[in-house]
Amino acid sequence: MNAPRTIVQKIWDTHRITSAKGADLLFVDRHLLHEGSHHAFDKIAASGRAIRHPELTFGVADHYAPSRPERATEATVTMIDRLARNTKHHGVTSFGLGDSRRGIVHVAMPEQGLTLPGTIIVCGDSHTATHGAFGAFAFGIGASEVAHVLATQALWQTPPRMMRINVNGHLPPAVTAKDLALHIIGQIGTGGATGHAVEYGGDAISALSMEGRMTLCNMTIEMGARSGIVPPDEVTFAWIDGRPMAPSGRAWSAAVDQWRGLRSDPGAVYDHVLDMDAHQVAPMVTWGTSPEHVAPVTGVVPEGQTDALDYMGLHAGMPIAQINVQRAFIGSCTNGRWSDLLDAAAVLKGRQVRVPLLVSPGSEAIAAQAEAAGIADLFRAAGAEWGSSGCSLCVGMNGDQVAPGEHCASTSNRNFRGRQGPGARTHLMSPAMVAAAAVMGHVTDVRDLTLADMAQHTIMREARA
Amino acid sequence: MTPFVTETGPGVALPMDNIDTDQLIPARFMKRSRTEGYGEQLLFDLRHHADGSKRGDMALNHLSVPPMLLITGANFGCGSSREAAVYALVDHGIRCVVARSFADIFRNNAMRNGLLTVVCGDAEHSALTAYLSVAPGEAVTADLKAQTISWGQKKGFAFDIDANARRRLLLGMDELSETLEYSKEIEDFERRYLQHHPWIAPHFRGFPGRA
Ligand code: SF4
């Protein structure tokens, strides 16, 4: 009898081409490219090689996509153009500027139905872990590996260690997958899952929408993990069904049949198992320069990290909810999806922002949906700037930057020094929390705002009665 | 790729945890091509004041010869998968980084560019950090054959390394040409795989087994 295996081990075994000297050569189902892939294309060109499977390779312009046409710089134009030329030359489908399928790679590719359970997905980007939300084994690779996959559609890998994180119970109201991710990082640290493939399970995970699962798997890389995965279920299948590039007809039924069996065996062995209680998660906010520098919004800035606090201009003992912000950002592959915009819109409705808030939807499709549903106008009416889709302020490559010394409430995934621009001070939080911070001008427990709303409604209703 | 066997050269300590790839090479330099080089941009924002002048408190700024070895804290290279973080180190002249721990993708990228990454224990780490903090730029030897780091009069320690990574580094081996020796296995695999997973390729032209 076969030994019980985890879902990642099953996907691994299905994709093993051969083994040599302690490493396995794995077949890659989907190879995703963005502007940063130019090093790999240069390597391919230097060795005069072709792309083995251009039809399994997809490009998208996201990192350098300007959030307004007039913000395009020479650099952004060159980088986007380079991607277009390289992909065209090799016959690779790529979503460039003006393509309605374009968006951040980890938002647009699932939307197009390219992210499927049981597949191996790689991309020269660490947040490729996002695609694990669909039950794919997905991980980021460097430029040398991108060149290797372009040439061979395969990759040498050594098996990761296995970690299972069970999240039991249910998340409280106004607490999101982003808060859960930050909570876990706060518990285990940014090195807590180094070398591991993390598998999520438990009631709180089953209850998450696909968007929530993507947010969680996305942030798994910030625990040091190689990948994050949620075994696929009916929620997954329903989300993929009918997407433009997903299998259809007989192929769809065959696929779903296989996907239904795609879960870890009882008795599968993990190197680490962690049990968490969803009830204990609060809205989380980072105060420092690493995602592990995180606390509940009800907490205080802790002692000890003087370097980080110097950079952030904060002092130990200060309540988190007293941190002033001068800027806010909603977007990125972590929290730029439809449900994220809805969460933020619910807070902004009937309110005005006190600090500049930039919204960059995760994809053109989401942008169009938001225009059609009046959500974009709701943001504009609240005083926010509605930009076009791209990585934008998450990484500050496209011309958008936070000024030195400014505090920015941000839905992105990294609060590293200078990530949003030299000297920028980033506070990571959920979309609703960013909206609340933008309205108040300081970090704010969104539950206070929404509870106040409810009270207000009650008063109004009683006054009318 | 330049093989790594034994290297002796100046060492420098950067005793911080969590040095991420955005620090190693800030995003605004990422559009450079490899031939332009990344050495000058290494740790740019940590090494410079906002006005572009060099920071006096950074040991890296005071060496007359660029360092061969860097010793740093935990979780080195975390963050983005940008291989340019490794290019910046290598182009700066660094051949070996010693740390309490490394981020996975960074370590992978390093190995593929001939950069040796060494994880060591607390005592060893403190000893070498202390030595280089007092004497930045003093000679250190990294010997991959013997798997040792040594300095001064008979001071040093042995380290562990994945056998595969060691072999690749010692030979300076190009992974791609090695893989191409398995072309037949890849083709056979693809044919079998598609038979069992017909749904993988419904919208794709030219995949083996499909007209
Ligand atoms: S949104 Fe941010 S984290 Fe996501 S791919 Fe773009 S730069 Fe990377």
Set down the secondary structure blueprint:
The complex is a heterodimer of chains A (465) and B (211).
Chain A: H1 7-15, E1 16-20, E2 23-27, E3 30-33, H2 38-47, E4 57-60, H3 74-89, E5 93-95, H4 105-111, E6 120-123, E7 137-140, H5 143-152, E8 154-157, E9 161-168, H6 177-188, E10 196-201, H7 203-206, H8 210-220, E11 227-229, H9 234-240, H10 249-260, E12 272-277, E13 284-286, E14 294-296, H11 306-312, E15 327-330, H12 332-335, H13 338-348, E16 357-359, H14 364-373, H15 375-381, E17 385-386, E18 407-410, E19 425-428, H16 431-440, H17 446-464
Parallel strand pairs in A: 3-4, 3-6, 4-5, 6-7, 9-10, 9-12, 10-11, 15-16, 15-18, 16-17, 18-19
Antiparallel strand pairs in A: 1-2, 2-8, 13-14
Helix pairs in contact in A: 2-5, 6-8, 13-16
Chain B: E1 6-14, H1 21-24, H2 44-47, E2 69-72, H3 84-92, E3 96-99, H4 104-111, E4 116-119, H5 122-134, E5 139-143, E6 148-151, E7 155-158, H6 163-171, H7 175-180, H8 183-196
Parallel strand pairs in B: 1-2, 2-3, 3-4
Antiparallel strand pairs in B: 1-5, 5-6, 6-7
Bound molecules: iron/sulfur cluster.
Function (chain B): Catalyzes the isomerization between 2-isopropylmalate and 3-isopropylmalate, via the formation of 2-isopropylmaleate.
Enzyme class (chain B): lyase
EC number (chain B): 4.2.1.33
Question: What descriptors fit this protein?
Answer:
heterodimer, A: 465 residues, alpha/beta, Aconitase, domain 3, five-stranded parallel β-sheet, 36% helix, B: 211 residues, Aconitase, domain 4, seven-stranded mixed β-sheet, 16% strand, globular, binds iron/sulfur cluster, amino-acid biosynthesis (chain A), branched-chain amino acid biosynthesis (chain A), Acoase/IPM_deHydtase_lsu_aba (chain A)
Description:
The complex is a heterodimer of chains A (465) and B (211). Chain A is of the alpha/beta class. Chain A has 2 domains: 7-276, Aconitase, domain 3 (2-Layer Sandwich); 285-453, Aconitase, domain 3 (2-Layer Sandwich), CATH 3.30.499.10. Helix content of chain A is 36%, strand content 17%. Chain A is built from 17 helices and 19 strands. Chain A has a 5-stranded parallel β-sheet with strand order 5-4-3-6-7, sandwiched between helices. A 5-stranded parallel β-sheet of chain A has the order 17-16-15-18-19. In chain A, strands 11-10-9-12 form a 4-stranded parallel β-sheet. The longest helix of chain A is centred in the C-terminal third of the chain and has 19 residues, at 446-464. Chain A is globular, with a radius of gyration of 22 Å. By secondary structure, chain B is of the alpha/beta class. Chain B has 8 helices and 7 strands, in the order E-H-H-E-H-E-H-E-H-E-E-E-H-H-H. Chain B has helices at 21-24, 44-47, 84-92, 104-111, 122-134, 163-171, 175-180, 183-196; strands at residues 6-14, 69-72, 96-99, 116-119, 139-143, 148-151, 155-158. At the A-B interface, strand 1, strand 2, helix 2, helix 3 and helix 5 of A face helix 4, helix 6, helix 7 and helix 8 of B. Iron/sulfur cluster (SF4) is lined by residues 62-63, 104-106, 125, 127, 332-333, 391, 394-395, 412-413 of chain A. Chain B: Residues 1-119 form the Aconitase A/isopropylmalate dehydratase small subunit swivel domain. Chain B: Pathway: Amino-acid biosynthesis; L-leucine biosynthesis; L-leucine from 3-methyl-2-oxobutanoate: step 2/4. Chain B: Its EC number is 4.2.1.33.
